[in-house]
Amino acid sequence: MYGLILAGGQSSRMGQPKSLIDYHGKPQYLFLLDLLMPYCEEVFISCKPEQEHWFSPCPTLPDNGMFGDIGPMGGVLSAFEVYDGPWLVVGCDYPYLTSADIVKLILSRSEQFDTVCYRHPTSGMDEPLTAIYENTCADQLTHSFRSGQHSLRHFLAQTRVNRIEPLTIDHLRSIDTPE
After folding, report:
1. Cβ(46)–Cβ(7) under 8 Å?
2. Interval 101-134: pLDDT, tens
3. H-run or E-run covering 155
4. Based on C-alpha coordinates, what's the Rg of the chain?
5. Which CATH number applies to 2-172?
6. Is 130 helix (H, G, I), strand (E, B) or coil?
7. Which candidate, 24, 81, 155, places its Cα nearest to that of 33?
8. Are 17 and 83 in contact (CB under 8 A)?
9. Left if phi > 0, otherwise alpha if psi is -120 to 50, otherwise beta: which for 148?
10. pLDDT at position 14 over 60
11. Strand runs (DSSP E) across the chain, as ranges?
């Protein structure tokens, strides 16, 4: 399994790159890199090509231009272009994730499912940026892109997904604004 840290967003609401914020004594992308490394063959930082220098010398996986500027789906599609996967995907705006959360995702994998993701216990919404995308969903993901549907959350609603509850709701808290 490969790891993918999604760090290529605009961060317009935050006012600064979320991947570079220091929550744990280091930039968030390094915290997540350390978190995923024990469970992945290799971990990549997904970003826009012009952002690659932010993450040097870490391995980056820049968005493939053929996918345009479509957000997280572009990062996951770009990852599948490089390696078949499976891909353990984590957004850079989840500073409360722990290794126990990663282990729970991994242990929830099954051949019955194309993806496994956390489901927010209050809203009931899938969390596509804390998920594992198996090899079996790559073609479906490409089809979704080609049909103009670029939302990973919408994609999860169309696939065989194992939705799991988080260990604690705080671990799924996405930090998107300075407040």
Report:
1. yes
2. 999 999 999 999 999 999 998 999 999 999 999 9
3. helix 152-157
4. 15
5. 3.90.550.10
6. strand
7. 24
8. no
9. left
10. no
11. 2-6, 42-47, 60-62, 87-91, 115-119, 126-133, 161-164
The sheet that has 60-62: what strands, in order across it?
Answer: 60-62, 42-47, 2-6, 87-91, 126-133, 115-119, 161-164
Structure tokens that stand for 168 in this block = 């604690």
Rounded-to-integer distance, Cα 17 and Cα 10, Å: 7
Structure tokens at 85: 């996967």
Structure tokens at 79: 């990852």
Q: Determine contact, residues 125/60, Cβ cutoff 8 Å.
A: no
Burial (CB < 10 A; 0-12, 13-18, 19+), residue 125, is: middle
pLDDT tens by residue, 30-67: 999 999 999 999 999 999 999 999 998 999 999 888 88
Q: Let me know the angle formed at the C-alpha of 6 by 104 and 94, rounded to the nearest 5 degrees.
A: 55
Token pair for residue 27? 């930039």
pTM: 0.93
Query: Residue 75: enclosing H or E segment and its boundaries?
Result: helix 72-82
Q: What is the C-alpha to C-alpha distance for residues 5 and 162, in angstroms, rounded to an integer?
A: 21
What CA–CA distance (Å, rounded) separates 89 from 40? 11
> Going by DSSP bridges, is the β-strand pair 87-91/126-133 parallel, antiparallel, or unpaired?
antiparallel
- Record the tokens describing residue 158, joined without a space: 């169309």
